[in-house]
Write a structure and sequence with these properties.
Chain lengths: 138, 402
């Protein structure tokens, strides 16, 4: 997990997205694609805690992660009443749409995808940016 | 992936904290003392990530012949700037136009720093008199990356300290007590960028402009192809050949009016030895032997002028990386595509097929009972990630829409 940071530029009026992505290059791409949103990159361990306390608008996760896989993460978050309603998007190198749906994920996207495909899927799940007031942690 | 994990970083000299390079002020040279290749690669990647304010930096480290990949490393954001010097970023000249028309801000870019003998000098902001880095290239990277990600190709300046595949006892002796590598100017042939720009400007929207990059081995292969000089007419007036380095390393050829398939077919003949390098590049010594090749087509891959070099560089590094991995694993360095066709020339189509193939390997491993924490699965996933990142960057260059 090389990239852990947040995008706090003009974050005051943007939906908050947590991303769990082990590849720094991929993480950067996701940040670039989702730059209209407030995006935070978190480790698999940190994302559950952060989701409970801060209730992001969306969580995006890879399946193949160190420590805990993305599907297990999804199951845990969906099992918790306080985080069950948070949309969960699986964005993975593994072609596991059925497994993602079974784990409770709201959407699945296979890598590589066109930039707009990810943006479209996020928009479909949480609506366009700048419609909700959330703030990323600097 | 770093292939020098078993390399002894002590090297008989006093090791430096965190592998940081030490500057020899007396000789106004920068060198790394007592560090291994992994530390060199990590330090350079971290330095550039910090200097350019990047989210991520992937660094491909080649040996002094610019032919063999010896380390690949990637780092995320680096925040400790105190240990780094300043980088002289004078206004770029030749590449200013390219820098002004990159892809989306914050996107990722691959910078073909073919023979960056002075990369450490750049990192420290200390240049030998009369030898400065190409500021335009640095500005290009900064402008295109804008906080995004950067892929660098860097070559060692001197032999030695290069871990042999698989590692052996000889590796520990091949140390870098006074490593002066990676200090040098950015030897990108300026004629290549100018030629590409004008070719793309003058060609019809559907006209074909193909850029092929070749990594060569063999002594003196660039002796007759000026590394920063004027291009050499390619045979049958199809385009121009360009030198890209002093030693036996890389050359480029730009073909006009040739489709990607035809270009790849010619390169396959070249790689198979059925075609002489002279017949492709224009004027090269007969001893030169191509080891890797990559092709980018302006019209088929839909890449813009500022992105052709970056995309081709990505593909060439990827091809070399795949070959190195396979060689390490004791397999045929030429990977096979679906249908058993040999993928000797990397292009976007080969990349797409290779992604499908690797994904199938991953699916098979999972189907056979491996879970996502399994080491084998993680390794395949990392390989797949590397391919996917290049593909997504290519998609980013295209500005593609679903």
């Amino acid at each position: 997990m090389a990239v852990v940071g947040s995008d706090n530029v003009e974050a005051s009026a943007r939906p908050l997205i947590f991303v769990v992505e082990p590849n720094p290059f991929m993480a950067e791409m996701e940040r670039s694609i989702l730059r209209s949103y407030a995006v935070e990159f978190l480790s698999p361990e940190a994302v559950v805690r952060a989701a409970v306390s801060r209730r992001p608008d969306l969580i995006i996760a890879e399946i193949v992660l160190r420590g805990r896989d993305g599907l297990a993460l999804c199951r845990e978050l969906k099992a918790r009443p306080e985080t069950a309603a948070i949309p969960f998007l699986v964005f993975s190198v593994v072609d596991a749409a059925a497994e993602a749906a079974e784990a409770g994920a709201d959407a699945f996207l296979l890598k590589p995808s066109e930039r707009n495909a990810l943006a479209y899927e996020v928009r479909r799940l949480i609506g366009p940016p700048r419609t909700q007031g959330r703030e990323a942690t600097p | 992936m770093t292939r020098s994990d078993d390399f002894d970083p002590a090297g008989g000299a006093e090791p430096l904290a965190a592998g940081a390079p030490k500057m020899n002020l007396r000789h106004r040279r920068v060198f790394l003392r007592g560090t291994g290749l992994r530390q060199v690669a990590d330090y350079l990647a971290q330095s550039f990530a910090a200097l350019l304010g990047l989210e991520a930096c992937v660094l491909y480290l080649y040996d002094h012949r610019r032919a063999n990949l010896v380390a690949v490393t990637s780092v995320g954001r680096v925040t400790d700037l105190r240990r780094l010097g300043r980088i002289p970023l004078d206004p770029g000249t030749g590449l200013a136009a390219l820098a002004a028309s990159p892809g989306e801000p914050g996107g990722s870019v691959s910078l073909p720093l073919w023979d960056s003998r002075r990369l450490l000098g750049v990192v420290y902001g200390r240049m030998d008199p009369g030898r400065v880095p190409d500021p335009g290239l640095v500005n290009l990277a900064r402008a295109m990356a804008r906080g995004g990600a950067l892929a660098l190709s860097v070559a060692l300046a001197k032999p030695g300290g290069v871990a042999k595949p698989g590692g052996n006892s000889g590796v520990a002796k091949a140390r870098l007590p006074r490593y002066q590598g990676v200090a040098g100017e950015f030897l990108l042939n300026p004629y290549l960028t100018r030629y590409l720009e004008s070719a793309l400007r003058l060609t019809q929207p559907d006209g074909a402009v193909v850029l092929a990059l070749l990594r060569l081995s063999g002594p003196g292969c660039l002796g007759r192809l000026p590394y920063r000089g004027c291009p050499v007419p390619a045979p049958r007036a199809l385009g121009r050949g360009f030198g890209l380095g002093r030693g036996s390393n890389r050359v480029a050829v730009v073909w006009l009016g040739l489709s990607r398939q035809d270009a790849a077919a010619r390169l396959r003949l070249l790689m198979a030895g059925s075609l002489a390098l002279d017949d492709v590049i224009g004027r090269a010594a007969a001893v030169a032997r191509p080891t890797s090749a990559a092709v980018v087509s302006h019209n088929e891959d839909r890449v813009g002028p500022g992105s052709m070099l970056a995309a081709a560089s990505d593909l060439l590094d990827l091809q070399t990386c795949l070959q190195s991995t396979r060689r390490d694993e004791g397999r045929d360095p030429v990977h096979q595509l679906t249908g058993d066709a040999a993928a000797v020339v990397m292009d976007s189509h080969v990349l797409a097929q290779e992604i499908d193939r690797q994904r199938q390997v991953l699916q098979d491993a999972i189907a056979n009972g491996c879970d996502f924490q399994d080491k084998h699965v993680r390794e395949i996933s990392e390989r797949l990630d590397r391919l996917i990142v290049v593909m997504m960057r290519l998609m980013g260059h295209r500005g593609a829409v679903p």
